[in-house]
């Protein structure tokens, strides 16, 4: 009897996004729907942004950013804001993901500071700068998905997709151009 071919190791697909500031690009929203988990690294803008994130497993992790303050959120959303942590750690196949907004330290040593603060992580996800960054040369990896809304997108709205397996992790970069035909979800 022939030996069955080994099955490929399943991957957990994790959508990484940040800096929506109340506006979520529709193309990124669609990508999240093809993922198992969504992680938002802060400066969310309102509860409706998080409600529109619909990954397959229904799990959305989020932290607050420096612009996620009660005076900047709609009054009806402020209860949710009170429950957002400064940072979160989440176990994935093959390691731990840590998400933090990143405004807690100056930009010049942000990656070093993150690596020193969370050395046990396999990947560190942050936002704040609105700049897409994939730093996988040193462990733990440091990723910034850029801005997933309309504010300071530096070349267009972007996000990252992390595929986590017990043995390997990969990162996909998704950047979209600004154009008037783009399906965008403006969340008031």
Automatic annotation (TrEMBL):
Transmembrane segments: none annotated. Keywords: Metal-binding. NCBIfam families: yfcE (TIGR00040). This is Phosphoesterase. It is an enzyme of class 3 (hydrolase). The lineage of its organism: Bacteria, Pseudomonadati, Pseudomonadota, Gammaproteobacteria, Chromatiales. GO terms for molecular function: hydrolase activity; metal ion binding. Belongs to the metallophosphoesterase superfamily. YfcE family.
């Amino acid at each position: 009897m022939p030996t069955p071919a080994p099955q490929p190791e399943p991957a957990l697909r994790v959508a990484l996004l940040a800096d929506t500031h109340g506006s979520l690009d529709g193309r990124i929203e669609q990508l999240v729907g093809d993922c198992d988990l969504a992680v938002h690294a802060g400066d969310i803008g309102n509860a409706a942004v998080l409600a529109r994130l619909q990954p397959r497993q229904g799990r959305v992790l989020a932290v607050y950013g420096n612009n996620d303050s009660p005076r900047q959120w709609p009054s009806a959303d402020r209860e949710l804001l009170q429950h957002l942590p400064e940072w979160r750690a989440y176990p994935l196949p093959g390691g731990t993901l840590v998400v933090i907004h990143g405004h807690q330290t100056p930009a010049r040593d942000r990656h070093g500071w993150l690596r020193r603060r969370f050395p046990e992580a396999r990947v560190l996800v942050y936002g704040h700068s609105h700049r897409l960054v994939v730093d996988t040369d040193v462990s733990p990896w440091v990723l910034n998905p850029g801005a997933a809304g309309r504010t300071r997108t530096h070349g267009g709205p972007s996000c990252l997709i992390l595929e986590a397996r017990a043995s390997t992790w990969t990162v996909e970069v998704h950047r979209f151009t600004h154009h008037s035909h783009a399906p965008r979800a403006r969340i008031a």
